[in-house]
Amino acid sequence: MTENQLLKTAQEFGSPIYVYDAEKIESQYKRLTNAFKSVKKLKINYAVKALSNISVLKLFNSLGSGIDTVSIQEVQLGLAAGFKPNQIIFTPNGVSLSEIEEAANLGVEINIDNLSILEQFGTKHPKVPVCIRINPHVMAGGNANISVGHIDSKFGISIHQIPHILRIVENTKMTINGIHMHTGSDILDIEVFLYASEILFDTAKQFKNLEFIDFGSGFKVPYKLGDIETNIEELGKKLSSRFNEFCKEYGKDLTLAFEPGKFLVSESGYFLTKVNAVKQTTSTVFAQVDSGFNHLIRPMFYGSHHDIINISNPKGRERFYTVVGYICETDTFGNNRRINEINEGDVLCFKNAGAYCFSMASNYNSRFRPAEVLWYKGEAHLIRKRETFDDILNNQIEVDFSTKKEAALAK
């Protein structure tokens, strides 16, 4: 997208606002499918948790994608967006048996990562095939909060507990139709990913009725100029070759599945904010914007980097600014960033705002959550209205304290 298009969006719809580029989403999807084009059966399940707007889901549906969901609400969103149950995989963690049963009743693929739940579900529903999430005990990911395949992770069933899984399968006569892993996000070293994949292949040999192997995702995208990213093309070449080889060993063409989220939508997203004030202290020049970690928590939560540019003054001389929000806590988006000179009223653009930004937004400080816009075929489409004060009060129930006080005084 061009800076003029972004500025036009802010002027038309106000700020703060999230803007997504459908063309970038499509190109990332095609890049991934092309990297694995030598695999006979490939299934991409977009991770809904990254960005769950129903219009974005419909876009993925039009591309031929399936979806990966982690809550019953995401399953229902997927169905509302037009996905068929067999295009949806449900991969929750720590949810109740009843929620898994609700998803199963809707006909979606079930992915279980807990021995207790596996046994309970298999005992009650032995005819419903399920996928098993394996913890390969491989550390991967750019932050402790998103590294989920290590030995102390709450996710997955340990590879050392495979005998327990086999015992449950034998006792319940249930069918395991898929094996799954997810090591973490922001994977840099594809050799680590390939190593974990070998563990998954070894595990798959223990199950004779598989239909697919799901390798998760976690592919890293660049967050700034010259940043390292996962080499999808190299991974595609190496993993495809090994997967096709394994299918021959297994005696059946299985489906190779992925569940990317960030890789597909991160670079498509832009978060636009207006500068409320420029404040100079004894050592710092602050650019104070009309947003905070209620709208973009990743820099504070993960220490993530988002490039920040001044789209109102793209040719101005560069100066150093610390960009901060309006939340009544420290909410620093970027320290001492070199940005084209900022004046009050300018619009700043945060890049890589497509994944885990709006989806993690809140009403902290009783602030409204922003609007969302999707640029599709050269036109800006409003896909979520900006919240209003009525939205803040919605579902709140007021107690009439004055009536109770008057009644007490009457006595």
Automatic annotation (TrEMBL):
SUPFAM superfamilies: Alanine racemase C-terminal domain-like (SSF50621), PLP-binding barrel (SSF51419). Its cofactor is pyridoxal 5'-phosphate. It is an enzyme of class 4 (lyase). Residues 18-354 form the Orn/DAP/Arg decarboxylase 2 C-terminal domain. The active site is at 328 (proton donor). Residues 24-266 form the Orn/DAP/Arg decarboxylase 2 N-terminal domain. Homodimer. Specifically catalyzes the decarboxylation of meso-diaminopimelate (meso-DAP) to L-lysine. HAMAP family: LysA. This is Diaminopimelate decarboxylase. It comes from Flaviramulus basaltis.
